[in-house]
Amino acid sequence: xxxxxxxxxxxxxxxxxxxxxxxxxxxxxxxxxxxxxxxxxxxxxxxxxxxxxxxxxxxxxxxxxxxxxxxxxxxxxxxxxxxxxxxxxxxxxxxxxxxxxxxxxxxxxxxxxxxxxxxxxxxxxxxxxxxxxxxxxxxxxxxxxxxxxxxxxxxxxxxxxxxxxxxxxxxxxxxxxxxxxxxxxxxxxxxxxxxxxxxxxxxxxxxxxxxxxxxxxxxxxxxxxxxxxxxxxxxxxxxxxxxxxxxxxxxxxxxxxxxxxxxxxxxxxxxxxxxxxxxxxxxxxxxxxxxxxxxxxxxxxxxxxxxxxxxxxxxxxxxxxxxxxxxxxxxxxxxxxx
Length: 338
Prior knowledge:
This protein has helices spanning about 10-20, 50-70, 100-115, 120-140, 165-180, 185-200, 200-205, 235-240, 250-255, 300-325, and strands spanning about 75-80, 95-100, 150, 165, 215, 220, 260-265, 265-270, 290, 300.
C-alpha cells in the first residue's frame, strides 16, 4: 500500500519554527526557540500484507462517505450518516446538515482517491472546483471565516451555529491539500489561494495579543473562550502564523498552555480527553522529526499522539472493560462520534 503524505501544511510548520528561531524577541512566557530533531526516535512499524489489505478496505470505505455524501453543486459534506450509509431523513434534526470541517476532510480524501485510482483525476478535480467555488464566491464568510454548520443544498447557516475558527482551519487543511495535489489546475490553485489568503487571522484574536477566539456569532459577537491550551487547534495556529496575507505573531504558538497527563507508563500533553485532539491536525501537518524545546519540554508532537493513543487503549482494557465488556484490546478509544 502506498503511503500518501498529505503535506500541504508542512511548509507552514517550517515557517513557524523558522520564525521562532530567527526573531530576536522574547515572548511574554520567556520560552526557548524550537530546534529540529536530527532523526525520529519512534520505531517504524512495517505493515504486513494483511495489514495492507485491511487498511486499504477501511480507507476506501471512509472515502466513500465523503464522496457519496458531498453535494454535487455546493460540494458541502454531511456532518454524519447512518451506519448503513444512509443520509439522515427529512424531518430528522440532522437532515441536510453539512459541516465545513467534514468538507475539509472530504477535499483531502479526493487527493488520496485520485492517487489510488478509486476515482479518476478528472472527477476529483471537477468536484474540487465546485467545492472551492462555493467557498470562494458564494458562502457567507466573516472576514474569511465560515459558519460551522451549513445547509448542504443552500449553503445557509444551520442551528444558529458560530463562525468557527477551528472548523474553518480544518476546512483550510483540505483547501491547501487540493491546491498542492492538483497544482497543475490553475482554477483550483486560484480559488484555494483566494480562500486562504482572505482569512483575517488577527481579527479572530479579538484584541488579544496571541490567543485566538473560538469564534463569532452575529447575535452576540465574539465567543469569550479562547484556544489557550494544547488541543486539536495546532493546525489553526500554524495556518495563522504561516499566512502570507494576514498572519498572527509567531509567539502565539508559545502562548498555549502545555499540561502533562500521565496514565500508567504513558505521559503526554492533553487539555481534554477525546482522542481526536491528538489526530485532527496530524491529518495535514507531518509532525514527524519536528521537535521543540519549550521551557523544560523536549517534545515531539507525533510521539505525543502515539503515547495518548496507547494510553486510551490501555484505559479501555483496565477500566472501561469492567462496565462495558465490548471495550477491550481491539475495541477502544474515546472521541466525538455516533
